[in-house]
């Protein structure tokens, strides 16, 4: 489940003798409870099955790592909110070190909590979580619309040749351009080989991050994975080179003005024009920030496009599996546009069914919350939890249990729409997690995904080439980089 653990931390015993012993199975020597997680397609299914036996909180030993699994909303809130300060760490991840230049603390999602992390989140927030009607929100709307236009034009050249299209790389390229237009004020041609390679590398990494390997918990297997780790490091070097050469260098290269003055293309001295400018300005102002912090942060956020592209692909998957959903989105699009214009981000508030479809896709795919780690000896539900313990927040249970949802295994966007036709989200629905390490990208996810899906369905009918080819995994928001084709045809009739 995408999280390796470079085990064997030496931990001091809990300071006071435990009053209560947390329930849990008896681990096997050496491998601990790992085999219990291999029996189901996703380890989160195993977490849920074990919670039926041991309850809303139980302990597991995965190889060398002490872990706790929390499966109820009540206790997930305790970990993420009321005791958020005790659980701000992340597992010490071998593969994640490989993905971030040998140090996972270069990554915003996989680093331990620190004052640097607080600052990095602060810089990102204005751009990644723009307030409705702010200038950044207007900018988000503008780049989403412009890129959606280019995307449809590019897609059209494919549709005219063959209706069966491997749309995933195109969707990802559109998302990558939305991100780079928004964050770096630059975009790339869809035919640009360097750009296509960069998009592919990010997607491979996104898929990789969503996989689990036994070595994550059995570090002594490391020699057998050396080549794999080298491959990951190579992918990230390719990306770093692209971002440096094609995005950042351009901005910091000195140019000579008409008056013969040397300046850079960055407007860091004035109001930052985008996220890249804001990062460069912080580099000048904050001596504790180095070049590599800036590069990694930019790269991390540009990489967010893979999550959006994979999610958009999963929305299309849900639509081809449930054709009535696509028809209802098209009805909503036609009601708003009357066939006379394109959808934009500001239409979202009047299109609850489309928004609800994205929410239902997030619910049914149930992207795991990145595991947290206790940074001090503490408790959950009065059970002692030692510093260094990995805590799995089982949001798969929150998204799929009958206790929370009626007909949980059915795809029903309507569940997110109130009788008054407004979007309603139950408190326990937390696809982006909650608390101090909550996802920073959710507004970008919802905005870009909304524009892409509505534009696609405004122009095309989308169907499966072969439903049996469509293979999705439970508790996973990633699809393999080489995934299935879809049948894309012009809409028979656009209602005006
Ligand atoms: C399908 C789309 C996405 C989903 C479902 C998702 C979900 C999540 C979840 C569950 C977490 C873990 C929070 C925790 O550990 O408590 C997270 C963390 C994070 N997400 Fe997202 N995310 C998505 C897309 C994005 C995008 C597009 C960006 C950036 C533009 C982004 C940036 C981040 C960052 C920086 C963190 C780490 C925050 C921290 O650890 O302090 N995410 N996301």
TrEMBL record:
Family matches, as CDD domains: CYP1_2-like
Residues that hold heme according to the record: 439
Key words, A-Z: Heme, Iron, Metal-binding, Monooxygenase, Oxidoreductase
Gene Ontology terms for molecular function: heme binding; iron ion binding; monooxygenase activity; oxidoreductase activity, acting on paired donors, with incorporation or reduction of molecular oxygen
InterPro entries found in the cross-reference section: Cyt_P450, Cyt_P450_CS, Cyt_P450_E_grp-I, Cyt_P450_sf
SUPFAM superfamilies: Cytochrome P450
Pfam families: p450 (PF00067)
Cofactor(s) this protein cannot do without: heme
Family to which this protein belongs: Belongs to the cytochrome P450 family.
Protein name stated in the entry: Cytochrome P450 CYP307A2
Species of origin: Nilaparvata lugens (Brown planthopper)
């Amino acid at each position: 489940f995408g999280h390796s653990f470079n085990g064997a931390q030496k931990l001091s015993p809990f300071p006071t003798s435990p009053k209560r012993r947390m329930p849990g199975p008896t681990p096997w020597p050496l491998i601990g409870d790992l085999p219990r997680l291999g029996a189901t397609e996703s380890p989160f299914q195993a977490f849920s099955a074990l919670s039926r036996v041991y309850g809303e909180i139980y302990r597991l030993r995965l190889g060398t790592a002490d872990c706790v699994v929390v499966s109820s909303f009540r206790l997930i809130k305790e970990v993420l909110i009321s005791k958020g300060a005790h659980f701000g760490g992340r597992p010490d991840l071998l593969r994640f070190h490989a993905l971030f230049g040998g140090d996972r603390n270069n990554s915003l999602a996989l680093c331990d909590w620190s004052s640097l992390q607080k600052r990095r989140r602060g810089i990102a927030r204005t751009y990644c979580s723009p307030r409705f009607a702010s200038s950044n929100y207007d900018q988000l709307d503008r780049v989403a619309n412009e890129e959606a236009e280019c995307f449809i034009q590019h897609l059209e050249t494919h549709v005219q040749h063959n209706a069966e299209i491997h749309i995933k790389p195109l969707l990802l390229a559109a998302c990558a351009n939305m991100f780079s237009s928004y964050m770096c004020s630059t975009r790339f041609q869809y035919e640009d080989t360097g750009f296509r390679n960069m998009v592919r590398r990010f997607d491979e990494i996104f898929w990789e991050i969503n996989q689990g390997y036994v070595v994550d918990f059995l570090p002594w297997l490391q020699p057998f994975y050396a080549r794999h780790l080298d491959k990951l490091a190579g992918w990230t070097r390719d990306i770093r080179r692209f971002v440096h050469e094609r995005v950042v260098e351009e901005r910091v290269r000195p140019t000579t003005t008409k008056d013969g003055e040397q300046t850079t293309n960055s407007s860091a001295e004035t109001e930052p024009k985008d996220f890249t400018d804001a990062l460069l300005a912080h580099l000048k102002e904050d001596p504790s920030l180095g070049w590599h912090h800036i590069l990694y942060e930019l790269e991390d956020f540009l990489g967010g496009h893979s999550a959006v592209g994979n999610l958009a692909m999963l929305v299309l998957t849900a639509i081809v599996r449930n054709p009535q959903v696509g028809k209802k989105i098209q009805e909503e699009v036609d009601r708003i546009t009357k066939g006379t214009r394109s959808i934009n981000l500001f239409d979202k508030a009047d299109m609850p069914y489309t928004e609800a479809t994205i929410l239902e896709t997030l619910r049914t795919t149930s992207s795991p919350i990145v595991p947290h780690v206790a940074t001090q000896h503490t408790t959950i539900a009065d059970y002692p939890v030692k510093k260094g313990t990995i805590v799995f927040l089982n949001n798969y249970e929150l998204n799929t249990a009958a206790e929370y949802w009626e007909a949980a295994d059915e795809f029903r966007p309507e569940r997110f729409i109130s009788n008054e036709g407004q979007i309603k989200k139950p408190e326990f629905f937390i696809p982006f997690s909650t608390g101090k390490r909550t996802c920073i990208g959710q507004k970008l996810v919802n905005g870009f995904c909304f524009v892409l899906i509505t534009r696609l369905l405004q122009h095309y009918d989308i169907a499966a080439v072969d439903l049996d080819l469509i293979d999705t995994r439970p508790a996973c928001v990633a699809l393999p980089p080489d995934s299935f084709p879809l049948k894309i045809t012009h809409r028979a009739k656009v209602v005006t």
